[in-house]
Amino acid sequence: MYIPNIPEFADHSDRLVLQCLITEALALGHKVSVFEGEDYAVKRSTEFEDIIDGCASTGEDWIVIRDQDNKKLGTFYLIYGNCDEDETMGLIADHSDNDFSNELYNKVSDQIEH
Predict the structure, then answer these.
(1) Spatial separation of the C-alpha atoms in residues 114 and 99, rounded to whole Å
(2) End-to-end C-alpha distance for the chain, whole angstroms
(3) What residue ranges do the domains of the chain occupy?
(4) CB–CB of 52/19 below 8 Å?
(5) How far out from the chain centre does Cα 81 lie?
(6) N or C, fewer C-beta in 10 Å, the chain?
(7) Each residue's pLDDT tens digit, 38-80
């Protein structure tokens, strides 16, 4: 099992949600980019370790998910440290409002909260 470096801004709950989100996106055969607000830390990767290592170097990231034809499927806005006892999915502060993103969010939520 891969144990990433502990990101500066991510706590335990953040890491669980993040790893689940990335794992599910990759399992669907998609590419993942990590945007830090000024630049991309990772672009269109299918490598779990590279994606995780590119996350949480700042207090927030945008996870952009694309299909194999590079069509943008959805974006997830992450704020690290936003989780609490009652809201384990707090890392995902917002996401694209479309079928793909809603289904992926619900899949991650079901895994984290059950």
Answers:
(1) 22
(2) 21
(3) 12-113
(4) yes
(5) 14
(6) N
(7) 999 999 999 999 999 999 888 899 999 999 999 999 999 999 9
